[in-house]
Amino acid sequence: MDMQVSFLDRLFESGLLIETGVDGLYGRSGQFEDVIAAFERLIDRIGGADGAEAIRFPPGMNRAYFEKSGYMKSFPQLAGTVHSFCGNDHDHLSLLQCMEEGKDWTKEQKATDIALTPAACYPLYPTVAKRGPISQNGGLYDLQSYCFRHEPSKDPARQQLFRMREYVCMGTEAHVTTFRQTWMDRGVEMMRSIGLDVEIDVANDPFFGRAGRLLANNQRDQNLKFELLIPVTSQANKTACMSFNYHQDAFGQKWGLTLENGSVAHTACVGFGLERIALALFAKHGLDVAIWPEAVRKTLWG
User: Fold this and answer.
1) What are phi and psi of 291, to 5 degrees?
2) pTM for this one?
3) Which CATH class is domain 3-80+118-301?
4) Torsion-angle region of residue 100: left (phi > 0), alpha (psi -120 to 50) or beta?
5) In the chain, what are the domain boundaries?
6) Which among 210, 209, 158 is positioned nearest to 24, based on CA atoms?
7) Cβ atoms within 10 Å of 146's Cβ, excluding its own
8) Contacts of 239 (CB under 8 A, 6+ apart)
């Protein structure tokens, strides 16, 4: 039996995940949410002293900002937009008739000014840019958001709507690369403290098309992206549960992010896939939190 399907079925049977009829779109039990809340408190204990500014954006972002970000050039296969009915009474009758006849009623829908947030940090860059120059000592931001990526799958670790916790650093090249290395070291220690087997490897984003393959190769060649990998549904094909990304000055150039001396800011981020980390814990320690190792429970819940 497919290990991914087997684990997903067990999660459904235990009630930890709740089936909705759409692959990658699941409800979560109170126990599942408690694990995520406990892990987020661990993140706070590790990173809280750094003094990051906490910002929470909704799971939708300004579509104009989304378009400017360039996401559609690189990842059109993952993008999602919010559409809504914008017609008159006659159009409404037509919509209802389509539904009655079992036809496609979504043709009456039109795009709104909202796109679904693809990563927690995407609304941050235009927000910070509006504030003016960043301190020469750099800026540090703590984010958490539901994110959307259109990749339906039976793999419970590949969800279409999921939560991402991020720390984003803006500053000089030396500043942000030091930040990234610090969190790579912290990430390994954090996961080991909760009994998870991890490895870090160079990675690339899922860029689209022929040009995307060149971008992916370039990203790997320059070591711009690393992932922390944990067995969830497979020992052979481990799941990326954290990512460590150095964007160079790409976002600085795109959004006009500058430091007080006028130089373009470099950016880096560390991202935690919260559902994936919870799933890794359930896969390793069992579906009943009460029987998890005492050391793991103590680290998470004190």
Assistant:
1) -105, 10
2) 0.93
3) alpha beta
4) alpha
5) 3-80+118-301, 84-112
6) 158
7) 16
8) 157, 229, 230, 231, 232, 233, 276, 279, 280
